[in-house]
Design brief:
Layout: E1 4-9, H1 13-23, E2 29-35, H2 38-45, E3 52-55, H3 65-73, E4 80-85, H4 90-99, E5 103-106, H5 111-122, E6 127-128, H6 130-141, H7 149-159, H8 164-171, H9 175-189, H10 194-204
Parallel strand pairs: 1-2, 1-3, 3-4, 4-5, 5-6
Helix pairs in contact: 2-3, 3-4, 7-9, 7-10, 8-9, 9-10
Length: 212
């Protein structure tokens, strides 16, 4: 049986070392390389000897994991990509899947779940954590209440305490456009204030909880 060749992409050395320790002991799995940036993952995957990429979502100030996934999977014969992250919000999950990821796991997944996901991906099957699959099913069930990418972006900035003026400047749009997005958000979430919108969206996993 041909071994599955893995590429680990994460900006934390301890995480890469931990993943290598877990996966290298599995029969039929070879950790071919590990990289610390999304850009390096794209370059390494392009060499053509990788079967599966374990991709983080956040890489500090550089390119994100979803963008890297899109570029990696756009190439014919590309390796399969599994996102491995701490984020389980609907926005992150949908962005990764739409970018071409065949799997989405959380970093607290047990080793056997991680190994099974790698094998599933190598065989051309999807590999979603149960909680992630549940989010996607719920999104399909109540699709009308799902926020667009821009609405999610605007509400995420609201959650950080930014004003409409600040959000408009950061997104290079007018304040009227920001207000329009918020009106749509309020309608979809059935709320009447910024605070309530943030609370409901966070509870539903539509945006990431704000730190602190």
């Amino acid at each position: 049986m041909t071994s599955i060749r893995l590429l680990l992409a994460d900006d934390h050395p301890v995480v890469r070392a931990g993943l290598r320790a877990v996966l290298e002991g599995e029969p039929g799995i070879i950790v071919a390389d590990d990289v610390a940036t999304a850009e390096a993952a794209i370059e390494r995957a392009a060499l053509g000897d990788i079967d599966v990429v374990l991709m983080d979502l956040q890489f500090g100030p550089g390119m994100g994991g979803s963008a890297a996934t899109r570029l990696i999977t756009a190439v014919p014969g590309a390796p399969r990509v599994i996102v491995l992250t701490t984020y389980d919000t609907e926005a992150d999950i949908v962005a990764a899947v739409e970018a071409g990821a065949c799997g989405y796991l959380l970093k607290d997944a047990p080793p056997d779940e991680l190994t099974a996901a790698v094998r599933a991906a190598a065989e051309g099957r999807s590999a979603l954590a149960p909680a992630v699959a549940g989010r996607l099913i719920e999104r399909m069930r109540v699709g009308a209440t799902s926020l667009s990418a821009r609405e999610t972006e605007v509400l995420s900035l609201v959650a950080t305490g930014r004003s409409n003026q600040q959000i408009a400047a950061e997104l290079f749009v007018s304040e009227a456009t920001v207000k329009s997005h918020l009106v749509h958000v309020f309608t979809k979430l059935d709320v009447d204030s910024r605070t309530a919108a943030v609370a409901v969206a966070t509870r539903r996993g539509l945006i990431r909880p704000t730190p602190g």
